[in-house]
């Protein structure tokens, strides 16, 4: 097996590992298993609440092969799903006060559509990007490994999220860039430009988060995490870490493209003056920045649709709505990342021009 085939194998292996984790989980006295709905025994709707009694065949776990009856809709819920025969579900079992087993549906199993989507993504990346696409898959897997094996465990132990994210960036950036774009001067320039722009983004985000007095407690998950960890995690630092890690992917596209533009312009006209080279490269970068800033803002907006809908009919004035921390945090996240993105263009262009001059 040559090196390229090894990369392909490792990329697919790392990306698919999450889909083959153990299916039996235990948390205290509660156990979660997998099963399939084999029959809908009863179904009715009262007061906008869907009630169902379904039969489920447990197919994995210590109780595999047993059929259990589960009732859903006994407790009011805004998003009560309707189950059909053949649905794959997670079934939780716990003990009642008399020691009897009580079964309920914890969630739907959605690994299969996720797996098909993942395979479609992998196939298209390899088909279009060829060996560079394979390298990008491997770099993606390596980045996730750094986050899963280093960033999250260290933050979970109470380490400074900002420091950990910066250290992770120094690991992720070379892996991501060199594996995706090859070991060459173009990639090296892009790495330097990304590191500088990322440092500026982190500094600006830190100042903005402190000035806006953002606490990081804008979600139920943040409050739960703080309670479960006994206050060991710096939630404000977690916001900054998210901004830094989130900016990496966008900066990759901009800095590599800008470095490549400078090299291509120099190859097309080896006698071009450096000032002319810089101005032409910046002109291309301006178009790139415009599209990328729009992309960044639209991505954040799309991810915040439920939040934005909550405020669309808010009777309070816009000045007060913007002042809510949950809104202010997204504004800081978007603008800090966009500013770093904008500055990465002249920074990378200057570095690339100096590189071709030498």
The span between the termini is 39 Å
Shape: elongated
Order of helices and strands: HEEEEEEHHHHHHHHH
Main beta sheet, described? 6 strands, antiparallel
Number of strands: 6
Residues in helix, %: 55-70%
Tell me the Rg in angstroms: 25 Å
Structural class: alpha+beta
Unreliable residue runs: 1-12, 18-25
Beta-strand share of residues = 15-25%
Number of helices: 10
Oligomer: single chain
| Chain-averaged pLDDT | 78
Number of domains in the coordinates?
2
Can you walk me through this structure?
With 358 residues, the protein is of the alpha+beta class. The chain has 2 domains: 21-109, OB fold (Dihydrolipoamide Acetyltransferase, E2P) (Beta Barrel), CATH 2.40.50; 115-357, no CATH class. The protein has 10 helices and 6 strands, in the order H-E-E-E-E-E-E-H-H-H-H-H-H-H-H-H. Helix 4 (185-211) packs antiparallel against helix 10 (325-357) and helix 6 packs antiparallel against helix 7. The longest helix is centred in the middle third of the chain and has 46 residues, at 111-156.
Keywords:
elongated; OB fold (Dihydrolipoamide Acetyltransferase, E2P); 10 helices; 358 residues; 6 strands; 2 domains
